[in-house]
Amino acid sequence: MTTFLIAAALASPVAAQEAGGRLDIVVQPEPPGLMLGLVQNGPTQLVAGDIYESLLRYDSDLTPMPSLAKSWEISDDGLTYTFKLNEGVKWHDGEDFTADDVVFSADVFLRETHARLRASLAYVKSITAPDPMTVVFKLKEPFGPFINAFENGTMPIVPKHIYEGTDFANNPANATPIGTGPFKFKEWVKGSHIHLVKNEDYYVDGLPYLDEVFYRVIPDAAARAVAFETGEVDVLPGGSVENWDIPRLAEMDGVCVTEKGWEFLAPLAWMWLNNREGPTANEKFRQAVMYAMDREFMRDVVWNGFGKVATGPIASSTNFYSDDVTIYDHNPDKAKELLAEMGYDGEPVRILPLPYGETWQRWAEAVRQNLSEVGINAEIDSSDVAGWNEKTSQWDYDMAFTYLYQYGDPALGVSRNYTADRIKKGSPWNNVEGYENLALDEKWAAAATMVTPEEREAAYAEIQKEIVDDVPVAWMQELTFPTIYRCNVNDLVTTAIGINDGPRNAWIKK
Asked: Which terms are listed as keywords in the entry (predicted)?
């Protein structure tokens, strides 16, 4: 069997980089837990990304890079993935890391605990360790995006010697997480901070540079901005402060801003449009909504110019994006024509904002204003987080704001929102709109299992062209959450997941 080798050397520390120092980063809301194999929400990934690792990391172009694996091969038929692991890696309790930990994590622990990864592992026939430093994944059929499944938040490797044969959810070690990462868990003072310290036995020579990292819990957005202004914290991750505070903070002396570090997650915002009933069940009404909205204005004013107007279901930073689709520019006259053709009689529709701060409320108000300008009777139906979860998961809405991560490939993070097998009450993270197109479902499934990138690119281009005309949801914006930080903090964002694994390479110029 012919194979090709994908390998890269671990980066060597540069002499100019300085060791030592403490980094204070805001984390909000406070994580519900730090055991990354059990909890994968944003705050947990932010902190636990320094404690746990996976086999690979990904650069801003989504190209795989070494992590626990130093090299890897993919067979020509796309069915066998062979990983060679770094030697000398130790768990934070001093035990040796081996291939058995990878097999246990992927084939036992995460199959039980990680629903999103479980969908990818359904393509896996076996996971074996022919020797202590080699892991082999054999697939039942080709699954193109499988190489993207080895990101830290997707396949975190956990210690077999701690979890094997235990009740995973109630293992006492969950409170004091043990990984292989560049930082070790030290302390968690609820409502105040999470303290991580340098892993002196880290397997990459010279890393990490920092002595310690404090993740600071500051519930109020205004207070977080003040904490940065006064020097209490060094880093404001994306979404930490309201958008209108970003320009003021960015203009401070010694402050830097970057929009990088979201390429893998690629958050895409849209409004779910209830395809089951009411005006939103009509395709012409949904198209009218798209033409009615001035999404460029919303980007420039509501989001202060951060982000890009979305053209469809796949973000432009995600593999297999195509812009060869119908473009819905701001065209009120076209919106009115479509409403007249469908015989819209003024039936009211409810807009449910995402309850994540004032920015989202303003966004809903801008949409309502645009819709009213073309004759759509829209009202805002605000709710708290619990209410939003309940309304969306029970389909009690007409139009509802959301945003979801894409995870580098349409088969991993996009198709779940549009295929009929994902129409299930009780979750706000699947096909909530109720869109059914069985012919398109077959195309989604086929594209996921094509072997060559060229085949997949053509298939996904066809899918995007078709679904954009159907408008199952109102695509709004490729979100950019700028990271604000002190300019003396260097190399904070070096991968496609940004600060989630940033402190590994970060260093402070004194």
From this structure: Signal
Burial of 389 per CB tally in 10 Å (0-12, 13-18, 19+): middle
- pLDDT for 297: 97
**Strand 22-26 with 212-216, pairing:** parallel
Q: How far apart are CA 125 and CA 80, in angstroms?
A: 10
Please answer whether residues 327 and 465 qualify as being in contact, where contact means their C-beta atoms are separated by less than 8 angstroms: no
Confirm if 39 and 31 have CB atoms less than 8 A apart.
Answer: yes
Burial 88-117 (b: 16+ CB within 10 A, else e): ebebbeeeebbbebbbbbbebbbeebbebb
CA–CA dist 430, 412 (Å, integer): 12
> What pLDDT shows up at residue 193?
98
Beta bridge partners of 137: 81, 127
Q: What is the pLDDT of residues 460-473, one digit of tens each?
A: 999 999 999 999 99
- Using CA atoms, how far apart are residues 113 and 316, in angstroms rounded to an integer? 31
CA angle 114, 442, 479 (to 5 degrees): 55
Burial 170-180 (b: 16+ CB within 10 A, else e): eeeebeebbbb
Encoded tokens for 78: 């796309």
Give whole-number Cα distances, 392 to 249, 274, 347, 401, 428, in Å. 35, 10, 20, 10, 6
| Distance, CA of 475 to chain centre | 17
Element (H, E) at 70: strand 69-75
- CB–CB of 195/214 below 8 Å? yes
Q: Residue for token digits 């002196």?
A: 200
- No. of helices (H) and no. of strands (E), the chain: 15, 22
Return the HEC string of 99-124: HHHHHHHHHHHHHHHCHHHHHHHCCE
Place 9 in a pLDDT band, splitting at 50, 70 and 90: very low
Q: Which two structure tokens, joined as six digits, stand for 413? A: 């993070």
- Per DSSP bridges, beta strands 473-478 and 268-273 are antiparallel
Give Rg (Cα) of the chain: 23
3-state secondary structure of 332: helix
Model confidence at 356: pLDDT above 90: no
Segment 8-19 shows an average pLDDT of 57
CA 77 to chain centre: 29
Number of Cβ within 10 Å of residue 485's Cβ equals 26
Q: What pairs with residue 74 in β-bridges? A: 4, 81
C-beta separation of 351 from 378 below 8 A: yes
Spatial distance between the Cα atoms of 133 and 510, rounded to a whole number of angstroms: 39
Neighbours of 201 (CB within 10 A): 13
Q: What tokens appear for 359 in the block?
A: 């920015």
Q: Which of 52, 12, 337 is nearest to 181 (CA)?
A: 52
pLDDT at 243: 86
Is-contact 126 138, C-beta < 8 A? yes
pTM for this prediction: 0.84
Q: Residue 73 corresponds to which tokens in the numbers above?
A: 């091969």
